[in-house]
Design brief:
It is built from one helix and no strands. With 66 residues, it is mainly alpha-helical.
């Protein structure tokens, strides 16, 4: 008898299919979270870049003026 033909096998098959559907939903949610974190990462990179440019301009201004 194949594994899915008995009562226990059919029950396990149904549980596995349910878990696979939940996993697809969770994978989609994880993908959305990863996208949000990626956007936050880029905002932080831009902010840090702006701070570095600002600091360089301040140092250049003091070197020329001082």
């Amino acid at each position: 008898m194949p594994n899915g033909d008995c009562a226990v096998g059919a029950s396990n098959k149904a549980r596995i299919e349910g878990l696979e559907m939940k996993q697809v939903t969770q994978d989609a949610a994880i993908e959305r979270v990863a996208d949000k974190l990626d956007r936050i990462n880029w905002w932080l990179v831009m902010l840090l870049g702006g701070m570095v440019v600002s600091l360089a301009l301040q140092i250049a201004g003091r070197a020329v003026g001082g």
